[in-house]
Amino acid sequence: MSATATTPPAGRRHRTPLARREARWAYVFLAPWIVGFLAFQAGPMVASAWLSLTEYDVINPPRYAGLDNYRQLMTDPAVARSLGNTVYYTVLHVPLAMVLSLGLALLLHRVGRWQGFFRTVFYLPVMTPAVAVGILFLLLLNTQDGLINRGLAGLGIEGLSWTTDPAWVMPGIILMSLWSLGSTVIIYLAALQNVPRDLYEAAAIDGAGAWARFRHVTLPMISGAIFFTLVVNTIASLQMFTEVYTMYFGNRQTQGSFSSEAATFYVIHLFQEAFQFLHMGFASAMAWLLFVIILLITLVQVRLGNRFVHYEGDET
Amino acid sequence: MVAGVLALAVSGCGGVGAGGDGGGGNATEGTLSTMGFGRSDEIASTRVDAFQREHPKVDLRITEGAFDEQQFLSAVASGNPPDLVYLDRNLVGTYATRGSILPLTDCVQQQGIDLAQYRPAAREQVSLDGVLYGVPEFSTVRVFYLNEAVLRQAGVRPEQVDLADWAALSTVSAELARVSDGRLSRIGVDPKIPEFLPMWAKANGADMISADGRTAQLDHPKVVEALTATVALIRDQGGWGKFKSFRDTFDFFGAQNPLAKNQIGAWPMEEWFLNQVAANSPDVELLVKPFVDRQGNPVTMSSGQAWVIPKGAKNPDAACAFVTQMTAIDTWLAAAQARADARRAEGQPFTGVWTGNIEADRRIFDELYQPTGNRRFDEAVDTIRSMQDAAFALPASPAGAEFDKAWTDAVNRVLSGQTEPAEALARAQREATAALDQASK
């Protein structure tokens, strides 16, 4: 039978009974997620869209306010500040996390029988509760007695005020964020292990050195994983909350002496507006602005990513 | 008054707005749910036990844990609020303005609750526009702690640490502080800002917010002066970064507290620290003085908790009975007795309980309190007792959280060197005014 004879007619796909049965089962297995999505995500999103057009304090019925909340978003300096902080964090954290994770994955890939042990070690911080990480880093970043400054003192760098100097608050948070790279490392490691060995052998036979093999074999072959982590890490960074909230805003006492405008991320400001200042309508508008920002960034990433990502089986 | 309050303790309450049965506590029944409260110690459990004894038909359901705004608002929004909420008093104004908690006027009238029994500062924090929205309990005041060991080492006499003389205070602080090789190893005087700025401002003759809680006064020159003076104390000791990072290493709850380790010379702090010292390091050379204004008159900031009944509470009658019982004088006496017994069993001194109820405090200290025999602690208790009458509190405000954020952010901006006090407080004034105006609409 020729290949031509098995090609389905253009515009219509012929599906075998097996394929149809598999599709049905796929929907059955997807059903819980779809129901959950509709009930717990799509529903609240629609409600949030409505609330963003209202003045709502959670306690009294919402009052329609048109686009007032969105107009206020555009002029509120606190929103601009928190958005700026979040973008600053994302721009630095995402590339750093990806490069470091790739480096660690490459090292792990080379480790022989101890790979399982090290893989566990690198993943353990991911299992640490975010609240604990926040508190831990408050101690590590202590100006006088923190381990980080003690280490830097050994290099001749003295007294960085990680938690009190607005210029150093964000670098401190980024440093903390690099503690939990385990998930990205595991994704890269899995991708590295899937690169066919014969490609490296063929490249080596063609005289490619280590860098050339990494540049022209490894990177293209794991570009799908890189693209995935880029998108996911960007979204997570734009929604940063727990660790920083614990460090700087966790309770009334820390809000007093720790809170810093330099640490006010967009979602933290959103949370304060919603649950502390009782501006749920405005907070809903903030949530939708963040959604649009994330959507636009992701679309740009997908558009650019399609140019660089190599998919196995892709004939182009 | 005492008789009236005692009668309340056993009669229960006729409900927030409903007619009272007036026939004793046992008439109250049904399920009663609380949020933000826990039976964490003998003070709590003794009082809860008293309520349950008096009201056996009430099915009391206590959701243990501290008050959580998100949890509370979610419960209110879903139409399933608890019957009672226990929260910080400075939140009452915000929730009252939005109608999420019920006025207790009828309950108070029908049961004849004597509002004069509550300390004025506590009462003001739970009242908005003259209407009572919460029943206050506890009255935490701030006093001035001195470490005589540190003072002696620095050649400073206790009377030289004079809170009325801010210029001299700066000099004394420099003498007490220990900075070597760029490291701060002992704080001289810690002004405890941002938290205590309202107290320093009050000592300088200014209120940071009007008595009705609706007008911010953050850019008042005397507030600016108070911030300038207190920030200078910190800047003179190496700056905020070193100061705070050193202070963050303090363990106020153990034997290695900063007093025992001579890490601090003098500082204002809540009175509960005395209990910690008494329990963990009774041999320290502690001296407690009143916090005073610039004329030398005692002044202190008070804070505490309150019971409120949310809108939509299903059993407001039982809720009213509960808060009446919990804050009744006899109940407080029983709780204080349990605390004294527990302390005695642990071999630790009983330093009193500050209930927020004037008569309960008087009877606790007249009938239950026994001087420890340790001159330092006994004098400290006397000082704290005297300070209760000099207490003020930030009044209930329709935008309490935003007001607090405005001024704490301002202080933090100054401490971190981003701006100067006048500029920071001018911006805070604008932010707080906008928030208060919006909340009052």
Protein topology:
The complex is a heterodimer of chains A (316) and B (441).
Chain A: H1 3-6, H2 17-51, E1 54-55, E2 63-64, H3 68-75, H4 77-110, H5 115-127, H6 130-140, H7 147-154, H8 166-177, H9 182-193, H10 197-205, H11 210-221, H12 223-238, H13 242-249, H14 252-257, H15 266-276, H16 280-308
Antiparallel strand pairs in A: 1-2
Helix pairs in contact in A: 3-16, 4-8, 4-9, 4-12, 4-15, 5-9, 6-13, 9-12, 10-11, 12-16, 15-16
Chain B: H1 2-11, E1 30-35, H2 42-54, E2 58-63, H3 69-77, E3 84-88, H4 92-97, H5 105-111, H6 120-125, E4 127-128, E5 131-132, E6 135-147, H7 148-154, H8 166-176, E7 178-180, E8 183-189, H9 197-203, H10 221-235, H11 240-247, E9 264-270, H12 273-280, E10 286-289, E11 300-308, H13 316-326, H14 329-345, H15 358-368, H16 375-387, E12 391-392, H17 400-415, H18 421-440
Parallel strand pairs in B: 1-2, 1-3, 8-9, 11-12
Antiparallel strand pairs in B: 3-11, 4-5, 6-9, 6-10, 6-11, 7-8
Greatest interface and its residue counts? A-B, 30 and 39 residues
Kindly provide the radius of gyration of chain B, computed on alpha-carbon positions and rounded to a whole number of angstroms: 23 Å
The count of helical stretches of chain A stands at 16
Report the CATH C-level class of chain A. Mainly Alpha
**CATH fold topology of chain A:** MetI-like fold
Number of helices of chain B: 18
Structural class computed from helices and strand pairing of chain B: alpha/beta
Domain tally of chain B = 2
- How many domains of chain A? The number is 1
Pick out the low-confidence regions of chain B. 1-26
